Structure formats: C-alpha cells, structure tokens
Amino acid sequence: MGKSPAVELEVEDRVVRISNPDRVYFPARGETKLDLANYYLSVGDGIVRALRERPCMLHRFPEGVTGEKVHQKRLPNGAPPWVRTVRVHFPRYNRHADELCVTHLADVIWAVQMSTVEFHPWNSRAADTEKPDEWRIDLDPGPTCTFDRVRRVALVVQEVLAELGATGFPKTSGSKGLHIYVRIKPDFGFQDVRKAALAFAHEVERRAPDDVETTWWRKDRDPSLVFVDYNQNTRDRTIASAYSVRGYPEATVSTPIRWDEIPDVDPHDFTIATVPKRYAELGDLHAGIDDAVWSIEPLLEWAARDELEVPDEQ
Fold this sequence. Notes:
It holds the Pfam family LigD_Prim-Pol. By secondary structure, the chain is of the alpha+beta class.
C-alpha cells in the first residue's frame, strides 16, 4: 500500500506541508499524523504559550508511538527559514545544541511534520537560558501509588503555595502524575531554583508524611508514596509541556486543569480526541501564568534555615 498524498495546512501566515498524513500514530483509536497536527492547531494559543521562546527538546516517533522514539535536542534538518533556534551549552560534554525555539504555531506544526509527538521545553527562555523563569513541581507517584494519593498531595501543594503568596498552575502529566507550574522572576540560576524546590518539597513532606517523600535515590523510595521531584528543575531536565501529547497509544495529553477539578480528575480522560472540545469551552487555563510572577527568595530562606543542599547538577 502506497503512502497517502501530502496535505498542506495554512497556519496563520505560513503553509506547512504534512507528508504521509494518514499514517496511524496512535493505535488505540487509530488517530493519524494529520489528526495530531489538527489537535495542535485546536490548542494553538495554549501550546505556543507553553513553549514560547524556550529551548525545546522533541520526542519524535517516525513510525508512530509504538515504534522507535527519537530524543531530538538539535533542530532536525530541513527546517524552513522562519523556524528559530536557541543555542544551549552542555558543560558535562562541553558541547552545544541549537534547539527549536517556538515563536509561532507554524513552528509546532512543522515539528509534527518531522514526526514530533511530545514537546519538552526548558524552564528558561532564549533571552537568558541560564536563569529559569518557571519553577516546576512534579508529583511523581511510585509504582504502587494510587492516584487518590497524588490528589491529596496536590491539595497540600496548593495550601503551601497560597501561604507563600505564589500562584500555581496545575496540569496532568499525561501519564500517572500531576505537575504544578509557578512563574518566577529570572533572578537565580538552576541550582538555586532546584534548592528552592527542595525546600518546598520538604515542607510538603512535613505536612503529609504518610503520602510524600523526598528521598534522592529511586531504589530507596517507598513505591506507594508520591515523590515531589525537585530534580525537574535541574539544568537541561525537561518534562512534557502543557498541551503536549504523550507518546502513548491512547494519545493522552498533558492538560491544564483547575484546582477545583483535582478531587475528581482522571488523567486518562484527556486525549487528542477530548481536549479540543474542552479547550474550545474553557480556553487556556494557563493563560494568566505570565502575569503571576513570584520570587523564590522565601524558599531559599527555608533552605538556608534547614541547611539544605542539593547534589551537583553535572
């Protein structure tokens, strides 16, 4: 059977060619490469806001999500001239990479043409890649942890953030956990943000000791508890963005949610088949994130008070 003919999508003032649009990427319901592109068009403002001007690693699946996954740091060859990049340095290897830097929705759709399913942005921006402006709270359940436990921990996170005067923007991970993002002033480097995240994780653990742990080594963690993963704020550590599809057969989506949805939320309800309607009705629930900027200084004071240190990043 031959390949399906290419289609051209008008994306704002650009045209993006989608080759082999009928290739099935998600076998659970049969969604195709073109379905994936149309999904990203349906949440355009949201995905661009989540990725805007951030170095972005791509998870590509040239044969669909049941095939080989390609972790792509460098921009794939063949990019049109309007696709921007940002150069980042990797001290451990003394190398650099020119990564995708999204500024328009067409950049996202072109990445889909290059078989990208997942978008994994840095928590810093092109203006200064060494100063994060996003603090990420990753509630990572152990192998035997229930999602009810994740929900309980998320509400403790909300409580602590409120006491700090910080605004958290929750989303599903598209897998088994929850993420909460906080926009922060880009005044500190990765190690300080990571230390602040550790101080916060310790406070959440103190308030919910039966549900949470912050043990560094995975092998030493209780598999039934939630790990508040402060390491997601390490330099060059990335997680799937808001509105990113995940590389699973069911095409689940990392989806922004309201705090009042958390007690009943089921991450499996959010897929490329369901999120477009939700987005059309609710808009981007993270739309206000850039207006809710907070300083991590109180958390650094907690870290100093508790004499907390984090291992070297490199």
